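Quick note —
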Amino acid sequence: MPNKLKISSASLVAKARKEIMEIDAKKAIGMVGLDDVVIVDIRDFRERQRTGYIRDSFHCPRGMAEFWVDPESPYFKPVFDGKKTFLFYCASGWRSALTVATLQKMGIEKIAHVTGGFSSWIEVGGEIIQFEEKNGK
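Predicted structure written out below.
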């Protein structure tokens, strides 16, 4: 029998959602292509391959987010340099809620996530780009 945890993953997500900005998929659709917005896909590479992704989204695996945004980290990615708004998404909004809460605590100010994640994006008819091996997205 598994150990009883002090706090469940669902509780962590619920707490994070109270502390962060959430943007629904319909509003997120209008943010694609804006010069001052970076849409960040934190899903696993295989998820992107299997289900596609949001046009112009930057892929940042969940396990690297804290390191890629930190300018003092050897893993820092320049896409996170500057004063843009970052809009994160995952499959259902759980991982992105936790990620945004953490990055917000680290000092990223203009940050939000897509409520319901990529699943909600699909439900409202958001454009999906299919993965092509040759372009590396």
